[in-house]
Amino acid sequence: RQPNARSIQEEIEKTLLRLNSGTPVTVHGAGRTDAGVHAIGQVVNFFTDGTIPIQNVVRAGNRLLPDDIVLLKAEEADRDFSALHSVKSKIYIYKVFENELADPFMNRFYWHVNKKLNLEDMQEALKYIEGEHDFSSFRSAGGNDTSPIREIYEASCTKEKNVYTFKFWGSGFLYHMVRNIMGLMINIGLGRVDKHEVPKIIEAKNRALAGKMAPANGLYLQKVYY
Question: How remote is the C-alpha of 210 from its chain's centroid?
Answer without folding.
Answer: 19
